[in-house]
Design brief:
alpha+beta, Nuclear Transport Factor 2, Chain: A, 4-stranded antiparallel β-sheet, elongated
């Protein structure tokens, strides 16, 4: 594409993929964004009046050419001196790197550490870290300062840092991961924060974001901390054991392993006793009328009844049809309290007409526990409907 400097109007050619990139004009050194222009510098005129306008322009050009010919000197033009050096052509423009992107020196420094770690070059890695400022993952505030360590302790700290960089196991974030994108998140005169997006060296669809803390020493960058970066939502998910699971039919769900739950701390003892009593009545299949009343009362109690109902789902192993019916009664109560539903419910036996599978049925229970651990604390009950 053809671009033009808006300051000195020098033109140059640039690949179309570079449209919008920042470039520096080699003539006037001004920086501007590359935008395509049409040949001639402006769009062609439209409409029926273009013919007369072109005719007038042609006449003017012919007349001007005639005047120039009449005023030109009859002498021959001066011959070009043999062997005279040709003027060197210089680049018309210079594309500027993104100062906060992949090409920034801080990002490329972090990329170099990944490359050195993948090559198992411990000697080079030792030169790329700042030992006296290391902040290894797992350090606590009580760790001794570098000045308080003896030589043996200092060597051990450096060795721990190198082991972290060279770790290719599940906890490793450097040697086994290849960066493909990065950004400079924070930048000060003597320190910087970089985030690199990476994929495993061995291939696969997994992705990680590794955050690097850098310091500048003697005009060179050094690393002092590196770890996998997690969003607040991801931190909460990890801390609560919640995981995203893809089922065999391609469904993507959020699950957590079931476990027995205690009553909520702020539930009064008399309410706890009543919830336990109602649950027993509700699940007694011979007490049809009383069971229905107990279920309605549990639903009215609301949130304080949820942990007990979930605990029943954990303890109910679904060995037979009666167990499935009891699990269904508990799920119905949970749905009424929360207005939530998680795929197939565990009410039907495997191979029944409803198409329930063991995977789907157990996933339903795990999805209930994932919801409770993710959002149960914030759940306050269903909003009351206003009467018209």
């Amino acid at each position: 594409m053809l671009i033009e400097c808006p300051f000195c109007h020098t033109r140059a050619k640039l690949p179309e993929s570079k449209e919008g990139a920042k470039v520096r004009c080699a003539e006037c050194s001004k920086v501007y964004r590359a935008r395509e222009i049409l040949s001639g510098g402006r769009k062609p005129a439209t409409g029926n009046n273009s013919g007369p306008i072109i005719a007038v322009i042609v006449v003017c050009v012919i007349g001007l050419g005639a005047v120039l010919v009449m005023k030109s000197s009859p002498s021959e033009p001066a011959p070009v001196q043999a062997g005279a050096p040709k003027a060197k052509s210089k680049p018309v423009l210079e594309e500027l790197p993104d100062p906060t992107g992949w090409d920034s020196e801080q990002v490329q420094f972090a990329v170099e550490i990944h490359e050195r770690a993948a090559a198992r070059n411990a000697e080079a890695l030792a030169r790329l870290i700042q030992a006296d400022q290391l902040q290894l993952v797992g350090d606590n505030e009580d760790r001794p300062a570098w000045s308080e360590l003896d030589d043996q302790a200092r060597e051990a700290r450096i060795d721990n840092a190198l082991e972290s960089l060279l770790d290719t196991g599940e906890t490793g974030t450097v040697a086994g991961w290849s960066p493909y994108d990065g950004e400079l998140v924070k930048n000060w005169e003597s320190s910087a924060t970089v985030k690199l997006s990476a994929t495993p060296h061995g291939g696969g669809t997994a992705k990680r974001v590794i955050q690097w803390e850098l310091v500048r020493v003697d005009d060179e960058w050094r690393a002092i901390r590196w770890e996998e970066w997690l969003s607040e939502a991801e931190k909460l998910r990890v801390s609560r054991g919640v995981e995203v699971v893809t089922l065999s039919d391609g469904s993507v769900v959020v699950e957590r392993e079931p476990e027995p739950l205690e009553h909520l701390e702020d539930t009064p003892q008399e309410v706890r006793d009543r919830i336990d009593e109602l649950l027993v009545t509700m699940l007694d299949l011979e007490l049809t009328t009383q069971g229905s009343k107990a279920s309605r009362e549990l639903i009215e109690i609301g949130k304080p009844a949820i942990p007990v109902l979930l605990t029943h789902l954990f303890e109910n192993k679904l060995y037979n049809e009666e167990d499935s019916i009891r699990a269904n009664i508990a799920v119905v109560a949970l749905r009424e309290i929360t207005d939530k539903s998680f795929g197939y419910q565990p009410q039907a036996l495997v191979g029944s007409a409803l198409g329930t599978t063991e995977e789907r049925r157990m996933s339903s229970v795990r999805q209930w526990f994932a919801w409770w651990h993710r959002k149960g604390e914030a759940f306050t009950g269903l909003p009351e409907m206003e009467e018209e």
